[in-house]
Amino acid sequence: MSSIICAVRGCYNNWKKRRLSPQQECFTHKKKRFDCCGPAFNLYPPPSTEEGRRQWLRALNLKNPPKKPYVCSFHFVDGKPTTEHPFPEKWLGYEAPVKRPRRVLVRLFKLLSFFIEASTSDAAEADSNIIGQCDAGTQWEDPSVSDHSYASNWPLPHHQPLLCDRATQCSEIPVYVQLLRNDHLSLLYTGLPLDAFTSLGDDLTEDFNNGFHLHPRDQLLMTLMKLRLNLLQDDIAERFHVSQPCVSKVISCWLDLMEKRLRPYIPWLPRETIKATMPQCFREHFPSLTCIIDCSEVPLQKPHNLDSRGESYSHYYGQNTIKFLIAVAPCGLIMFISPGYGGRCSDKFITTNSGFLEYLRPGDQVMADRGFVIQDLLLERRVKLVIPAFTKKSMQLSEEDTTNTRRIANVRVHVERVLRRLKNYRVISQTVPISLAPKYDKILRVCAALYNLRGDIIHDGEE
């Protein structure tokens, strides 16, 4: 009995490991498996019927199969052979899957159809450009991007799963279980509490199979670690025991998925909700405020293309940057985040072209810094702009203007706090490599949605 080993290529689960697993700690219940869940896996023999054994061996796709090819729980859809899924189907260590009309394939087909339709409609959107244009006749593009894996719009597989080199090995315990042992580690690696990561994983991985031979939550963790810590791909590959090209493809694929699935997490709140959630520090002096807006810039690796270099050069920072607009509700929720624009673009240009103005309604109030010269744009929509007072011809501000400016400064600090927490995701605080620029719009939206998952940061009583 002790010599029984899982027959799937790359999987090393055996009867001895199964026998010892009850002595290990259960991640879910925080006690020995012997007292709660039992063994971490089981080993199942092939069916006794000739046809069943033939299908079993066909699924394993082994050149020289053993006399009695046992398979462990990890390779079954339901964790064991069932009437609906009697044969191993998951993480089989080779490219071509078993082609049978199973329900999981029907769900995969529907999911792929959704992405194809969504990608077709997205192509027509005006914000599909990665960096905003300051001149309609100038295309911000860098030829050096074309050879990097991030530059290509990596599609989900249509015909067969992708083989991720070393990723075909079936680990006994997924990496996310080993790394995310508590809230502290979860916040470190993902920027989310452990329960939020679990809920997000349940939402994103439900009925999802993109063909990579990695646990779906490991793929999610891999992507979040890139966003949170901005690790090198080689570093991530070493941590997950896969190849660097596999890491690049997984992250690119998951950025596309997360950007689509997490859009509802960046909602434009109705007025009633804004007022109901408004902290006391806003109610006293700005009870009708809709949002606070600000622009932020992130350093960009200097492009080789001269046109691209000019479009992204920021005179304020004296270097190439990516610039984006953010709108924050008084409660601290991010309600809008723009695509990335070249650092040369003005605040007014980004406000006009990002689509932000389309969300405003007559009677709204928008708070901004002095640099937002957008009174004319808001006046057309009967929206009030709240900005600090200006000094005219070296004259001192009146007492009323001074008081109002101080009040604005006291509450505008909250949008700066939101930006600081958003930039805890180091991928949007550290220098952006040119190779990552084509994905930057999606990165901004995904990070904003992840920030909102943590809840507000402005509470009653804060000054």
TrEMBL record:
Its cofactor is a divalent metal cation. This is THAP-type domain-containing protein. GO terms for molecular function: DNA binding; zinc ion binding. Pfam families: DDE_Tnp_4, HTH_Tnp_4, THAP. Residues 1-91 form the THAP-type domain. It comes from Coilia grayii (Gray's grenadier anchovy). PANTHER family: SI:DKEY-56D12.4, THAP DOMAIN PROTEIN. Keywords: DNA-binding, Metal-binding, Zinc, Zinc-finger. It comes from the Eukaryota.
